[in-house]
C-alpha cells in the first residue's frame, strides 16, 4: 500500500512539473500574439486539476486517468499553438471557450471529491465514480470538437492561401504577357529601323547595268524592276562608293545579282578598300609604262637629231651630201592592194638602185 502511494506521489510530481511548464507556455501565448483569454483559462484549470488530483483519496484510478487525460489535452494545445504565431478566427475561439468550460467543471468536481470526509467518500463512492467517468467523457467530447474546429480552420486557411496564390499566378501571367507583347513591339521597331538604315547606306550600283563585259565573263540577263524605286534620302558621304570602285571590285558582282543578300557595312568597306587598292596599283603601273615609253621616244628623238646634225655638218664641210658607203641599203616595201603594210623592210643591193638618187644613211 505504501509502495502504491509512493508511485502515485511520484507520478503526480512529474505530472505537475510538466503541467506547470505547459501552462506557462500556453498562458504566455494567450496573452501575447493570439490574444485569447479563454486559452489562458484552459492552462490555469489544467494546472489546478493536476494539483487537486493527488488530494483525492476515493476512486484514485479513475481520478488519475482524468488528470492524465487533461494533461494530454494541454500538451496538444501547447504543441499546436505555443510555437506558432497563427491567426485564430471567431469559430475556433468559441470552441476553445467550450473546452475551457468543461475543464472548469472538472476542476469543481475534483475540488468536491478532495474536500469530502471518510464516511462521505464511503457512502458516495459509486456516484462519485459515475461523475468522474461522465466528466471524462464530456471533456473528451469537447476536445474532439475543438480538434475538428482546428482542422476546419486549417482547411479554410489553406483554401484562402490557395485562392491568393491563384490570383497571384493569374496576375503574374497577365504581367508576363503584357511584357512579352511590349518586347515584341520593341523588337519590330528596332528591326524596321535597322532595315531602313541599312537600305539608306547601301549603294545603288545594282540599278546600273555594267558598261562592258570581258570575254571570259558572259553578259548577265537584264532583270528589269517593274516596281517604282521609292525616293530615299542621299546616303552619307563616308559610306558612298563610287562607280569606278564598284566596277573594279567584287562588290559589283555581288550587288548586281538579284538573288544576293544585303552586305553589312563592314563587308562593304572591306570590298571598297580592296577595289581602291587595285585601282591604285593599276594606275601606278600605267604611269610607269607611260614614263618608260616617253623616255624611249625622247632618246630616239635625241639620237635622230644628233645624226641629222652630224650629216648637215659634214655636207657643209665637204660641199656634197653624204652617200651611203654600205653595199646594201634598206628599202621599205610598198603597201599591198588591200591597204595593209607589207612584211616590213627588206635589204637590196646598192647597185640595183636607180642612178641619180642619193641615199642618206641615217
From TrEMBL:
Extent of Basic and acidic residues compositional bias: 327-344
Listed GO biological process terms: cell surface receptor signaling pathway
Source domain of life: Eukaryota
Disordered: region residues: 327-362
InterPro entries per the UniProt record, alphabetical: Adaptor_Cbl_N_dom_sf, MLKL-like_MCAfunc
Entry protein name: Fungal N-terminal domain-containing protein
UniProt source species: Phanerochaete sordida
Amino acid at each position: 500500500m505504501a509502495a502504491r502511494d509512493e508511485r502515485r506521489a511520484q507520478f503526480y510530481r512529474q505530472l505537475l512539473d510538466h503541467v506547470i511548464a505547459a501552462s506557462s507556455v500556453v498562458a504566455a501565448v494567450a496573452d501575447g500574439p493570439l490574444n485569447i483569454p479563454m486559452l489562458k483559462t484552459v492552462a490555469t484549470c489544467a494546472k489546478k486539476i493536476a494539483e487537486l488530483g493527488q488530494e483525492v483519496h476515493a476512486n484514485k484510478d479513475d481520478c488519475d486517468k482524468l488528470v492524465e487525460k487533461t494533461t494530454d489535452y494541454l500538451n496538444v494545445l501547447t504543441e499546436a499553438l505555443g510555437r506558432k504565431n497563427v491567426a485564430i478566427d471567431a469559430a475556433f475561439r468559441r470552441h476553445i471557450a467550450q473546452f475551457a468550460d468543461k475543464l472548469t467543471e472538472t476542476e469543481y468536481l475534483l475540488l468536491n471529491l478532495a474536500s469530502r470526509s471518510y464516511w462521505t467518500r464511503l457512502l458516495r463512492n459509486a456516484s462519485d465514480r459515475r461523475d468522474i467517468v461522465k466528466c471524462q467523457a464530456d471533456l473528451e467530447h469537447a476536445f474532439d470538437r475543438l480538434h475538428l474546429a482546428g482542422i476546419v480552420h486549417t482547411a479554410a486557411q489553406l483554401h484562402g492561401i490557395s485562392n491568393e496564390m491563384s490570383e497571384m499566378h493569374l496576375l503574374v501571367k497577365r504581367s508576363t504577357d503584357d511584357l512579352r507583347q511590349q518586347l515584341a513591339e520593341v523588337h519590330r521597331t528596332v528591326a524596321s529601323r535597322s532595315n531602313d538604315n541599312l537600305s539608306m547606306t547601301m549603294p545603288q550600283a545594282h540599278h546600273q547595268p555594267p558598261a562592258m563585259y570581258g570575254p571570259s565573263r558572259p553578259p548577265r540577263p537584264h532583270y528589269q524592276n517593274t516596281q517604282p524605286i521609292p525616293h530615299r534620302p542621299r546616303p552619307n558621304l563616308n559610306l558612298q562608293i563610287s562607280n569606278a570602285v564598284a566596277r573594279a571590285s567584287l562588290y559589283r558582282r555581288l550587288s548586281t545579282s538579284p538573288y544576293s543578300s544585303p552586305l553589312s557595312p563592314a563587308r562593304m568597306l572591306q570590298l571598297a578598300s580592296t577595289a581602291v587598292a587595285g585601282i591604285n596599283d593599276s594606275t601606278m603601273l600605267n604611269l610607269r609604262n607611260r614614263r618608260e615609253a616617253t623616255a624611249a621616244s625622247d632618246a630616239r628623238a635625241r639620237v635622230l637629231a644628233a645624226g641629222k646634225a652630224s650629216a648637215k655638218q659634214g655636207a657643209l664641210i665637204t660641199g656634197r651630201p653624204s652617200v651611203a658607203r654600205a653595199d646594201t641599203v634598206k628599202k621599205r616595201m610598198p603597201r599591198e592592194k588591200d591597204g595593209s603594210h607589207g612584211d616590213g623592210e627588206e635589204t637590196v643591193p646598192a647597185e640595183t638602185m636607180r642612178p641619180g638618187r642619193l641615199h642618206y644613211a641615217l
